Amino acid sequence: MSHAQNTPIASLAPIQLPAGTGTRLWLLAMVLLWGLSWPATALALQSVPPLWLAAIRFGSAAVCLFVFVGLRGQLRLPPRADWPIVASIGLLQMMAFTGMGMIAMTRTDTSHAVLLAYTTPLWSLLMGWAMFRQAPSRAQALALAVGLSGVALIVSPLEMDWQRPGVVTGAALLLGGAICWSAVILHIRRHRWTTPPLALAPWQMLLATIPLTAIACAVEGSPAAIPMTPHLLQLLAFIGPVATSACFVISAEHGRRISAFAMSNFTLGVPLIGVLASVFFLGNRLSAVFLAGLTLVFAGMVLAGMAARRRA
């Protein structure tokens, strides 16, 4: 309890939450918004081509963050030491992961998409082993075996109809995007930051927006044909300014106030909320095979987080 809380003035002020409680409430809101962004994206994809949707998402979020960072007096060109992490996050996590994921969502159910996309902790273990000779411990090996068996179950013919056009390609794109994100996670762990992550975020989003826009123009044509209805504008406002820029601010401001293990536990809620929201808003049906795969993937990610904490 701080000194101010013992003063008579503090007793007259509104009741304040403990420091940790406020952070956790913000992070819970972030997880909820990120999870809900998956069915919102699926609905927007009914009117907007996937690459254009990715470009609009990061373009609108970049504008919001440029304004936010500018108002805080932190807007400046990234120093040369931070260019690699700007390129890594902008091109691999934002452009590749999101672009591939949105294309995949036009070919597979949202519940499958969100779960496969969030298998990044498993691929991070494998990539750390392959790239940096970080042999997994027994606990990490168990986490990999459990989690990857769930992935194999979900993408198997028992759950996915391989005869339906685009289904296998969609699953491959989702797993490829997750691997790209895993590479970024490994880079973030080793990067020596000279600029706060929040100050770099608008530049990363701008870097993702430019090639996404160019590719969308070449592949999907002019955006003039997109029907900008009030409903679609609401979805775009939620996907970009709210679920991307606002959530990034929450993550940067409050994620650093808790341990990496606690933060990883919070983010586990994103695919769970995404799956449940896809059932509620989109009518996705969850088969017994999918639920078994979901359980194994989640168990693998929880075990991976626990093993990483013990190893650290």
TrEMBL record:
UniProt keywords (A-Z) are: Membrane, Transmembrane, Transmembrane helix
Cell compartment(s), UniProt:
Membrane
Q: Does the keyword Transmembrane apply?
A: yes
Alphabetical GO CC annotations of the entry are:
membrane
Topology versus the membrane: Multi-pass membrane protein
**Entry's transmembrane regions:** 51-71, 83-105, 111-132, 139-158, 170-188, 200-226, 232-250, 262-282, 288-308
Residues annotated as domain EamA? 25-155, 169-304
Name the protein family: Belongs to the EamA transporter family.
By what name is this protein known? EamA domain-containing protein
